[in-house]
Amino acid sequence: MSDLSRWTDRVALVTGASAGIGEAIAVRLVHEGMRVVGCARRLDRMAHLRARLGARFTPVQADLRDPDAIDDLFDSLDARGLSPAVLVNNAGLARKDSLLDGTREGWREMFDVNVLALCQCTQRAVRGMRANGDDGAVVHISSMAAHRVPVGGNSVYAATKFAVRALTEGLRQELYAAGSAVRVSAVSPGLVETEFPAVYHGSAAAAALAAADFPILHPADVADAVAWILSQPAHVQVHDVLLRPRRQPN
């Protein structure tokens, strides 16, 4: 069992919390005693979480493609006494914009959300953590695509996740050089049962045709990995958790 008692009543910010992995992480951290701020573009999609989790869950609206919206989000949290001790950078997306056939707009959206928003959220959250006792944790929800370019996959999406892999190590080095106790980790899942395939393929029907013919990960599996990371003692640095279905071939 994970022991997250050191985080009891402290604030976690989970981006992309309206469904899938982000929703599962929010639920798990509330159940572990944390106060969770869930961030998503569509506020209405988090109403069910508010009803289920009560006052320990605070939904907030922000479009992470907009850098001003990110600054407004963190300014608002600071003003409300909700500066996060834990940041889970879960928000991410993929578009069917390959290197040969894609558009600059599609590439830009993937980099804006998967890389630049992650950088800006991390910078603002770590700044607050260091100002509030220099104690906190950043967890990036990355992908197995950060470790290999999937055959037949989208190389531009993979490039964004390779960037997350580099940023994880880069932040670790920067925090070490600064003498900070804030830690950074990543979780790199393979195939997970979420809305992600439907968004990528453009419809649930198209996603179903491309679905794997073996059991894939559940969002709760990824939430378990995040809880395990946060349960580690202060002297332990978990760098990256690679998590794939047993029957996923690559």
Which secondary structure elements does this structure contain, and how are they paired or packed?
Blueprint: E1 11-15, H1 20-31, E2 35-40, H2 47-53, E3 57-61, H3 67-79, E4 86-89, H4 104-131, E5 137-141, H5 155-177, E6 183-189, H6 196-201, H7 204-209, H8 219-230, E7 240-243
Parallel strand pairs: 1-2, 1-4, 2-3, 4-5, 5-6, 6-7
Describe this protein's structure.
- The chain has 250 residues and is of the alpha/beta class.
- It has a single domain (5-242), classed as NAD(P)-binding Rossmann-like Domain (Rossmann fold, 3-Layer(aba) Sandwich).
- 43% of the residues lie in helices and 14% in strands.
- A 7-stranded parallel β-sheet has the order 3-2-1-4-5-6-7, with helices on both faces.
- Helix 4 links the parallel strand 4 (86-89) and strand 5.
- It is globular.
- The model has no long low-confidence stretch (mean pLDDT 92).
State the name of the first-level CATH class. Answer: Alpha Beta
CATH H level: which superfamily?
NAD(P)-binding Rossmann-like Domain
Computed structural class = alpha/beta
Q: What proportion of the residues form beta strands (DSSP E)?
A: 5-15%
- Which strand order do you get reading across the main beta sheet? 3-2-1-4-5-6-7
CATH architecture: 3-Layer(aba) Sandwich
Number of strands: 7
Query: What is the straight-line distance between the termini?
Result: 29 Å
Radius of gyration: 17 Å
Q: Within the CATH hierarchy, at the fold level, what is the topology?
A: Rossmann fold
Give the ordered list of helices and strands: EHEHEHEHEHEHHHE
Shape: globular
Total number of domains: 1
Helix content: 40-55%
Please, what is the average pLDDT? 92
Count of alpha/pi helices: 8
The main β sheet shows up as:
7 strands, parallel
Model regions low in confidence, pLDDT < 50 over at least 5 residues: none
